[in-house]
Amino acid sequence: MATNRSYQDACGAAHALDLVGERWALLVVRELLLGPKRYSDLKEDLPGISTNVLATRLSELERHGVLHKTRLPPPSRAQVYRLTPWGLELEPVIRQIGRWGARSPSHRPDAHLSVATFILSLRTNFDARRAAGADLLLELRLGEHRFRATVADGGFEVIPGPAEGPHAVLDGTPKTLASLVYGGRPPAEAEAAGELRLSGDRAAAERFLSCFTLPAPAGPAPGAAPPP
Q1: What's the topology of domain 111-209?
Q2: I want to staple 20 with a disulfide (CB 3.0 to 4.6 A). Which of 25, 35, 37, 155 is the partner?
Q3: What is the pTM assigned to this prediction?
Q4: Distance separating alpha carbons of residues 199 and 211, to the nearest angstrom
Q5: What fold is seen in the domain 9-101?
Q6: Keyword annotations for this protein (predicted)?
């Protein structure tokens, strides 16, 4: 961000906004929290961003030390963008902002949902009370992406990569899996619609889907008309 756009405020929060407060900047960071991506990947996962704005945000974030350009090892050698260790420290910030925003009465869960958004939502909304006593290993397949999801000892971990010997496999789009996790949609309904492929232990899959909860809505904004 240019110096003349700075808040000129000694508060650490103000300086953080100097660094990542421009429109789209935090969403670029969000998309890189699960690993490096090419420019084309970022453009696809952020369909509302223009090419000029994306290029500008990447340049700014690199200049500020939040991310850096690198190349994948052979045979790919593709240029990718990767968060620095300092940039990765933004994950809990983004997750908390996401949980706060999900409480808004005007939140639109039907809008675009990227793979990174869905996976980070699982990390954010895991409910240890609901998961009490569960010992589960699942593989989540989201297009070409694979994730190993583990629920054990009241904790949860989901990381990129296939799961070896999972109890169950859930294969669908981020929106489909979100409808199962947060919308209470029965897996059988999504299967019948051709939107989900569930293999393995069905009971384990359903137990996994029950381990996440959204925060309570904040309520209508002051002065808003009551619902019909």
Answers
A1: Nonspecific Lipid-transfer Protein; Chain A (3.30.1050)
A2: 25
A3: 0.91
A4: 19
A5: Arc Repressor Mutant, subunit A (1.10.10)
A6: DNA-binding, Transcription, Transcription regulation
User: Tens-digit pLDDT profile for the chain (228 aa)?
Assistant: 444 579 999 999 999 999 999 999 999 999 999 999 999 999 999 999 999 999 999 999 999 999 999 998 888 889 999 999 999 999 999 999 999 999 999 998 889 999 999 999 999 999 999 999 999 999 999 999 999 999 999 999 999 999 999 999 999 999 999 999 999 999 999 999 999 999 999 999 999 999 999 999 997 766 665 555
Locate all alpha helices (DSSP H) within the chain, ordered by sequence.
12-20, 25-32, 39-45, 51-63, 85-88, 91-102, 115-125, 174-181, 187-192, 202-209
> What's the half-sphere exposure (Cβ side, CA atoms, 13 Å) at 165?
0
Residue corresponding to tokens 């009551």: 226
User: How far, in Å, CA of 29 to CA of 20, rounded?
Assistant: 9
Burial of 176 (0-12, 13-18, 19+ CB in 10 A): buried
Round to whole Å and give the CA distance between 201 and 26: 38
DSSP, collapsed to helix, strand or coil, labels residue 6 as: coil
Q: Which two tokens stand for residue 38?
A: 């090419």
What type of residue is 79?
Answer: Q
Cis status, amide bond into 227, omega within 30 of 0: no
